[in-house]
Amino acid sequence: MLQTGLIANAHNDLVTDASYDFYGLRLATCSLDQRIKIWQLDESNGSWRVEDDWKAHDAAISKVSWAHPEFGSIIASASFDRTVKVWEQTSAVDSDGPQVNGGAGPSSASRWVERAVLVDAKGTVRAVEFAPHHFGLKLATVSSDNHLRVYECVEQRSLTPWELAEEIDVLSLPSASPAAGALSVTLATPTQTSAPLDGVSVSMVAHALQQQQQQSQMPSRPGMGHREADGGWTISWCKDRYWGEIIAAGCGITGVVKIVHLPPSRRPVTLLTLDSTPSDGAPKSIPSLDDTPPPYAITSVAWAPSCGRSYHLIATGGRDGHVRIWRVKPPTPSDELEAEGEPDTSEGNWSASIVGDFDDHKSAVGRVEWNITGTILSSAGNDGRIRLWKVTAGNVWRPAGHVSIEQAEEQRPDVEMEDTPLAE
Fold first, then answer.
1. Distance between CA atoms of 324 and 360, rounded to whole angstroms?
2. Beta-strand (E) ranges in 334-396?
3. pLDDT at 250
4. Torsion sign over Cα 325, 326, 327, 330
5. Helix (H, G, I), strand (E, B) or coil at 111
6. CB of 28 within 8 A of CB of 76?
């Protein structure tokens, strides 16, 4: 593993996100300095140069996302100013829409024009991601008000009108049936002080009360407490077209990820709830502070490309320092639905199991991401390392190496590869 490029002093403050375009030749970065920069790769020497640079928001920018190139050069940015903005790259002579400072870098042949501002969020917007291109020009956002919002571009030519197609309170959305191994209790979060408990069992109520007692009696620290800084808000689209529009979403400090299906003619439903909170499964009539550790916020979720597999892989990273890989099994299509050409997305028919659980970071995990085939997972943690995970010939996930972010004196990364035999 060799260093192919180094961008020194990319921003004037902490870099909060970096996102490659479809071809991997351009990189969008955003920062607490409220600016977005577009970097172009020079394939001859592996260096990156600034193509465009502009002030995009009035507060720190949390995420950036590229749209599929069939829609043009489009990015979306999410910010702590409670807005999501859609930007399009145009030629310098295009005067349609407000111009932004695209000439701060070496190139002034293009400008990024602000096409839309989405202002529905009631809290800081923490994540934004364009939908897979086969669903059209859509994007999903999640904010600290615990709402998942899906927008659709009404007029792709101008990119100006965007319609709010779905607005979902993720924590209030009923979980999948307990038969599917899901917890049906939604807990309070920094922006939601109460949650519905209708129809849940006594043991589930006890579990919820137990977690709330632990959080109220322990000091607030990363992964625990009721501060917004302790939570995690993250989303990832299912890449498989067959099952329709499905999003994995995590909100607040509950430590769970909900797999939400967005049917075109029905209300959104939860197909499955991924709950990594340790539990012995036994009903507890009296909450105890010594039995179950409190939940930790999920800070990142990534849905792997299917690539012909009969199951899905979803990776999560949390403030507890764990990287988990979930094997999600969809239901076997029934003959009736197969004849009608519709997938079976009925609630409770999906199942999941953890096939990999690693705590090598020993600190909060900020990002998990798959490669293009869904065979290698990378994770970045507060330990200053990017770690790689790969499945072996026996279908067992193992560490595949790590890269240290801290540069040595010769400006080369500390790279260490494991001796574990890996499947090709």
1. 11
2. 351-358, 365-370, 376-381, 385-391
3. 95
4. negative
5. strand
6. no
CA distances from 235 to 140, 221, 314 (A): 8, 23, 11
Collapsing DSSP to helix, strand or coil, 23 comes out as coil
- What are the Cα distances from residue 242, in Å, to 129, 292, 318, 350? 19, 38, 29, 15
Check pLDDT > 80 for residue 289. no
Q: Is the pTM of this model over 0.85?
A: no
Tokens of 15: 């870099």
Query: Which range has highest mean pLDDT (10-14, 98-102, 216-220)?
Result: 10-14
Residue type, 283: P
Q: Read off the tokens for 30.
A: 């955003």
Strands (E) across 15-60 are located at 15-20, 26-31, 35-42, 47-55
DSSP bridge partners of 40: 26, 49
List of domains in the chain: 10-91+111-169 (2.130.10.10)
Say what the pLDDT of residue 8 is.
84
User: Each residue of 117-149: pLDDT tens digit?
Assistant: 999 999 999 999 999 999 999 999 999 999 999
